[in-house]
Amino acid sequence: MSARLLLVMVCASAMNVYLSAWKLFLRRAGESVMAKKISNLKKMAVFEKCAARCAYCGKSLSPQTAHIDHIHPKSLGGGNDIANLNLACVQCNTAKSDKDIEDFRLFKMIQLSEFKEVITGRLWRELQDRGVFINLPVYTFHFEESMI
């Protein structure tokens, strides 16, 4: 057996021990060990729900260009149920990242304002809390416009 193959086998064995310990830790902490993928059937249901348009900007999408976005991010406890899923273009999905819907709205409002180079959502909220009010343009998501 070559030294390289032996090294690979030792590393793989050590990695398996580490992963097993990590999975045990997650189980004890009450976390899911397996990432739950969104089925193709559910993706198509979201595609139909959003009428093949980005829920945030309204851009027309194909199944190949569409991203599935969690309205309430998984990192904040959101699930994979259809009510929590929206269709998004790559630009909106990337910009939204793990923001909740109102943080993303604030981000979009700041981007449309004259203050986009000098203010963040956190700073805007801090100023509001201190009684300094900065008017930002209203931003309505495409999915909200289509409900009207």
Automatic annotation (TrEMBL):
Residues of the HNH nuclease domain: 40-94
Keyword Ligase (UniProt): no
Sorted alphabetically, which CDD domains does this protein's record hold? HNHc
Q: Name one Pfam family in it.
A: HNH
Q: Which GO terms describe its molecular function?
A: endonuclease activity; nucleic acid binding; zinc ion binding
Q: Which InterPro entries match?
A: HNH, HNH_nuc, NA-targeting_endonuclease
Keywords annotated in UniProt: Endonuclease, Hydrolase, Nuclease
Q: What is this protein called?
A: HNH endonuclease
* Organism expressing this protein natively: Salmonella enterica
